Amino acid sequence: MQQPISQDSFAQGMKDALPLLLAIAPYAVILGAQASRTGLSTPELGLLTGLNFAGGSEFAAIQLWRDPLPVLTIILLTFLINSRHIIMSAALTPYLRHQPRRKVLPALFFMADEGWAVTYSRTLKNAAVMPADKCLNLSYFMGACFPFWPVWLGFSVVGALAGPALGNVEMYGFAMAFPATFIVLLRGMWKGFRAARPWMISLAVAAVVYLIFPGHAYVLAGTFSGLLAAWFWGDKA
């Protein structure tokens, strides 16, 4: 049986997150190398990765980075891609609602996909043996989530500095780290086909729109189709 999380569990959170922590470094390098080819300076990239801290929206922003800068498009796309964090944080609410908001809200800044997946998986296992208000504490949450921030920031800067020397970093196969990481995350959260239907609907709709319509309309289509599917099947999954 899974042991409950101890009250002093920052180290345990780091230990659980370590495999994914190592996996994000390669595609942080890719982001930095791509940014160096758009004219984005290294300090600007550091601000982007440090203040936004959401890889998917940062890759999308880099692809749109040109002169004149489409500011409104980047803002809207960033909001749509990052809107998944609303649902992710809502999933943790039953286990964090007893914590003071002055502690929870700053901690949620560090909630990237990988750290959230590690935290949520451990929390669900603890929920089987203990009350909801004891399943998760902020020490474990920060141990599982915070280390991704300096790794993501640091390796993206490394990629920006080394980008001109590396050339086309995609040729080294680093890009495979991104889909491989998310396959691992999905496998860890798999609850059967019925629960996965919103994911599949979102993926299918986004793929079709991507193939038919130019631009980034597929992000909007995938986001809302997934939300609608989750709402429709919510009580049935």
TrEMBL record:
Give the GO terms filed under biological process for this record. L-valine transmembrane transport
Give the record's family classification: Belongs to the AzlC family.
**PANTHER family in the cross-refs:** INNER MEMBRANE PROTEIN YGAZ
Q: Which GO terms describe its cellular component?
A: plasma membrane
Q: Where are the transmembrane segments?
A: 17-33, 71-96, 140-165, 171-190, 202-233
What's the source species for this entry?
Pantoea alhagi
- In Swiss-Prot or TrEMBL terms, this protein is called Branched-chain amino acid ABC transporter permease
Kindly give the membrane topology term recorded for this protein.
Multi-pass membrane protein
Q: Which UniProt keywords apply?
A: Cell membrane, Membrane, Transmembrane, Transmembrane helix, Transport
Q: Where in the cell is it found?
A: Cell membrane
